[in-house]
Design brief:
By secondary structure, this protein is an alpha/beta fold. It has one domain (4-149): P-loop containing nucleotide triphosphate hydrolases (Rossmann fold), CATH 3.40.50. The chain has 7 helices and 5 strands; from the N terminus they run βαβααβαβααβα. The chain has a 5-stranded parallel β-sheet with strand order 2-3-1-4-5, sandwiched between helices. The longest helix has 22 residues, at 45-66. One of its GO terms (molecular function) is ATP binding. Catalyzes the specific phosphorylation of the 3-hydroxyl group of shikimic acid using ATP as a cosubstrate. Substrate binds at residues 34, 79, 134.
Length: 164
């Protein structure tokens, strides 16, 4: 296992929630990349997207994720991290990338307002289109894929630890 664990996946799959529990279990630190972005920019994600547009936000996200320097840390990324080539190359280099996979219908049921969550949506894009666009990218970058279908937090944690 590499020095860090990087969690990727759609918004609402539980990257941050699982990340905290996984870090405690392993005795690791925990970093939420979205919070790093907000801290650097001194704005909420939705404000950055509103001010800078989708492309501007993704450049900021790419820069922040590509500059994470840490060890023995679980890193929960934003769902759109997979659009940043430099970020993903860096994260693959410093950690084991774990894709938390969830089927569309379960995900749709979990997510409320996407805009309120600071989710990167292109004009006219809905959740299904976003899901279908991102899944192949998550699979491309993943070292490990954990299907969360039907699993609660504890079972997901066990599945991740088993895969690692």
């Amino acid at each position: 296992m590499k020095e860090n664990i990087v969690l990727i996946g759609m918004p609402g799959v539980g990257k941050s929630t699982l990340g905290v529990v996984l870090a405690k279990q392993l005795g690791y630190e925990f970093v939420d990349a979205d919070l790093l972005i907000q801290k650097r920019e001194n704005r909420l994600l939705k404000e950055i997207i509103a001010d800078e547009g989708v492309e501007g936000f993704m450049q900021i996200e790419n820069d922040v994720n590509a500059s994470i320097e840490t060890s023995k840390t679980v890193i929960a990324t934003g769902g759109s991290v997979i659009y940043g080539k430099e970020a993903m190359a860096h994260l693959q280099e410093i950690g084991t990338v774990v894709y938390l996979k969830l089927d569309y219908d379960t995900l749709d049921g979990r997510l409320g307002s996407l805009k309120g969550r600071g989710v990167v949506l292109k004009d006219g894009q809905d959740l299904r289109a976003l899901y279908e666009e991102r899944v192949p990218l998550y699979e491309k970058y993943a070292d490990v894929i954990v299907d969360e279908g039907g699993l609660d937090l504890e079972a997901t944690l066990e599945a991740v630890l088993e895969q690692l």
